[in-house]
Amino acid sequence: MPEHPVAAKNNRYQAIITEIFQAHFRDGMVDFEFSRAEIAATAQALAIPLPKNLGDVIYTFRYRNALPAVIVQTAAAGCEWIIVGAGNGLYRFRQVQITSISARTHLLPIKIPDSTPEIIGAYALSDEQALLAKVRYNRLIDLFLGLTAYSLQNHLRTTVKKSVRSKSMRFMSVWIVMGVTTSYQSRRKAEVTAMVLCRHSRMCCAAPRNSRH
Questions:
Q1: CA nearest to 153, candidates 124, 132, 168, 183
Q2: What's the pLDDT score for residue 22?
Q3: Cα dist from 209 to 153, 159, 193, whole Å
Q4: Are strands 165-178 and 148-162 parallel, antiparallel or unpaired?
Q5: Which of 62, 87, 138, 176 has its CA at 20 to 30 Å from residue 10's CA atom?
Q6: How many helices and strands in the chain, by DSSP H and E?
């Protein structure tokens, strides 16, 4: 039976990222850089069909799938490998402390009437954009923070200049939050939410407008 297309793609991506990792990693390393060009070179060396979108290899392991076990097992105890941007066409494997963000199982769920228009629900797909549509229509960000939130843009791609390098960044969704709350619970939610924002988000927000491209 032929391999499922999604499984076949994931297997190819695992082979590519594993080969790149093993080409650079040495015992004791906690970070190292590699280039986008290495993805194409590695695919050719392994006789793997070249991905149509080279960046999808990186995106897959940053946001969709776990890194291959052969990479995971090299991390120190209590740490895990992540891939971050290191400049235009550059990426960095970095060891960080394991972070797990999960729902508190002892809290009762808050039921919210589904305000998603029926026609949207009928034609929505099962990807992250469909989920973001439900978040917007039901104003879940507003309810969670106790503030007024506006969806500014999805799939924002930009670069921010840092020292002599420009870092390429991609944001799944960008929101503007306005208002002041006197509720301690709402303030605490906002503080926790701010804490879990990725380092790239802070860098992008802090950068002068003329440094973004």
A1: 132
A2: 95
A3: 17, 11, 24
A4: antiparallel
A5: 87
A6: 9, 5
Burial class (CB in 10 A: 0-12, 13-18, 19+), 61: buried
pLDDT digit string (tens) for 33-48? 999 999 999 999 999 9
Please give the span between the terminal C-alpha atoms of the chain, in angstroms, as a whole number: 47
20-30 residue pLDDT tens:
999 999 999 99
Contact, 129 vs 151, CB < 8 A?
A: no
Pairing of strands 31-35, 79-87: unpaired
Cβ(75)–Cβ(69) below 8 Å: no
Q: Is the dihedral of CA 58, 64, 68, 71 positive or negative?
A: positive
Please state the length of the chain. Answer: 213
Long-range contacts of 66-74 (CB under 8 A, 24+ apart): 67/17, 68/14, 68/17, 68/18, 70/18, 70/21, 70/22, 71/17, 71/18, 71/21, 74/25
With a CB cutoff of 8 Å and minimum separation 6, the contacts of 85 are 91, 92, 167, 168, 169, 200
pTM to 2 decimal places: 0.61
Going from the C-alpha of 136 to that of each of 57, 68, 111, 117, 176, the distances in angstroms are 29, 34, 16, 11, 12
Please tell me what DSSP assigns to residue 46.
Answer: T
Rounded CA-CA distance 10/57 in Å is 9
